[in-house]
Design a protein that fits this description.
Layout (H helix, E strand, L loop, with lengths): L2 H8 L4 E10 L6 H18 L4 E9 L3 H9 L4 H18 L6 E4 L3 H17 L2 E11 L4 E2 L5 E2 L8 E2 L7 E10 L5 H10 L4 E2 L2 H11 L5 E2 L1 E2 L15 E2 L1 H6 L1 H4 L9 H7 L4 E5 L3 H15 L7 E4 L2 E3 L14 H8 L1 H11 L6 E3 L1 H29 L4 E2 L7 H22 L3 H22 L1 H7 L1 H22 L4 H10 L6 H9 L9 E2 L12 H17 L8 H5 L3 E11 L7 E6 L5 E6 L7 H4 L3 E5 L5 E3 L2 E3 L2 E2 L1 E3 L5 E3 L14
Helix pairs in contact: 6-7, 7-11, 12-13, 13-14, 14-16, 15-16, 15-18, 16-18, 17-18, 18-19, 18-20
This protein binds 5'-O-[(L-methionyl)-sulphamoyl]adenosine.
5'-O-[(L-methionyl)-sulphamoyl]adenosine binds next to strand 1, helix 2, helix 8 and strand 13.
Amino acid sequence: MNLEQEQGANKPFNHRYLTTPIYYVNAKPHLGTLYTTLLADVFTRWYQVHGCNTFFLTGTDEHGQKVAEAAQKQGMEPQAFVDQLVPAFQKAWDCYGFQYNNFIRTTDSAHMQAVQDWLKKLIASGDIYKDTYIGWYDSSQEAFLTEKDMEFKEGDVAPISLLSGKPAIRIEEESYFFRLSAYQERLLAFYQEHPDFVVPSERLQEVISFVSGGLKDLSISRRTLTWGVPFPGDEHHVAYVWADALLNYLTGVGYGNSDKTDQWRAWWPADIQLMAKDILRFHAIYWPAFLMASGLPLPKKLLVHGWIKVDGQKMSKSIGNVVDPIELAEAYGVDAVRYYLTRYLPITQDATYSTGDLEHRVTTDLVNDLSNLVHRMLVLAKKYDLSSLQGPYDWNTADQQLQKDVHEALTLAEREMARFYPHMAYAEVWRAVARLNSYMHEEAPWKVIKEDPKRFKTIISAVCHALSYIGAVVWPVIPHAMERMFSALGITFTVDYAEKKLVGEAIDWNQKFNLVPIEPLFVRRSRDSVMEENKKQEEVVAQVKPDNEITIDDFIKVEIHAGTIIAVEDIVGSEKIYQMRIDIGALGTRTICAGVKKYYDCDELVGRKAIFVTNLKPRKLMGVTSHGMMLMATDSDGKPTIVAPATDVPNGTRLK
Ligand code: MSP
């Protein structure tokens, strides 16, 4: 074994290196590229909370015929063309909070230099040689086509590429070849020794049958193209885009860069390389063969997901159904999208995305099951002045059963993640969330408080303990919401904190919490309702009659402020009205009555932020004087919904 082969052995045992494909720059980021990059981020964070150091690499693939043609169409130099496209990827990934350590571009000079050095090495070892390529090429896939990849139809000049459905182009040119045929047996032996090299393993079978059918040497240079890495020693050629692109996984952690030797030794080989099935052949055949020829250790795993369709249709510009990641985040929130894609798109097969389904799942799982649970608990605790929780706790059998059930669900989740099935893992976690909801319902702390305040405290602490475990497991998927939840429990989230919970010796059911009320973690959102609302508003504006018009001076007379409902009580003899204490910041607290008793329990109202008219003449209702009015809107079921600011604004903020 030569020195380079030993390098894998130097990698610390707790290092995990994850990669995504590097994306072609001529399409903007979309749901498909978002999904792969999200999975890489989820697994990266998952390893972090399990005590690993991680390196997450993503980037852009910027050379090749397709890019050169697109630049030409725009009348631009290819470099300027790619430079203007790359920020869209960084912006989208940053918007989602993806924690990549390096964003590699194949136009980076260090990468290009390392590709050239690598080519030289393989030319010297005889693995690369010069000949003539005669055959067909699919430039949309940047793929040299084998007979199985094409369909000849009568009357057509060119065959149709089965990889893209587009006509192939005929190439007859001098080319450098990689001696792929020499690696057929070694590849087959490798697959046999590493049946878990590809996940799901069925996909490895497709690879095995392709390789068993015989491998031809692979053309790895293009003479008719100038937009690429110049071939060392032969200025008429550039490196074939896949030979250039695949090497990013090495150069992204410092391969071939003498300043980064330590980094390279610390991370290679990659632990998980994520991609969709479309590019499996390049990664499961060419890539290992390149590495074998270079004397380098092979990646440990290729995690291959299916193809995502939108409402059952292929995503395409012409259909107009391409989902933009940033627009999606703006409509539903980053964590809601992260959750939906991780939990509801099965990694193992092709999946369909639908906005209606996303809205439904987010409402049921995140708003109703998780967010409302946390919110109700915090509001109840605040109502009864409970903020500090400290053991020892006196757990009864119901509490112990809850702890057991939560522990079991989380253990099953761990098992599914170890199989690389995040959609299954988070289904298990949500069983724990459901269990916690049923515990809250059965133990009814809002009733218990009246007879047994000590038991009330124990129930609240049982909920907090369970949330702290669930939170550590869920953080990789919805990190922003979980960090807020931990701060509401009085804990500053760190991966070390989560690691102690998840890989610690024993589960700690004796923690301290300091409860701090927060705005709900998730609120119900619907893109259609936002759009419809806008449309209705426009119509209303158009219909306003002149005699309804008021001037800005009229409007300014009405004083409207944000405030928080801090207490709610019945009014004796009234079936409709509650009296509420409202905290209006600098305006102090005051009583305001509202006719919402039929629609809300007291618990649901306490802690809610709302909007109040504060300079209305005081009015007596059922013997109680109301000093203002809460703004509400009646929904389609006739239920008054409370109007609230979209983000948290301090009590007392005046609305203008
Ligand atoms: N540049 C090459 C990859 C080189 S890696 C050394 C490439 N780029 S790509 O922009 O076409 O990206 C392909 C990848 O994007 C897929 O493997 C997958 O990760 C993601 N997806 C793009 N569209 C997708 C769907 N509709 N569904 C799921 N994933 C998809 O190939």
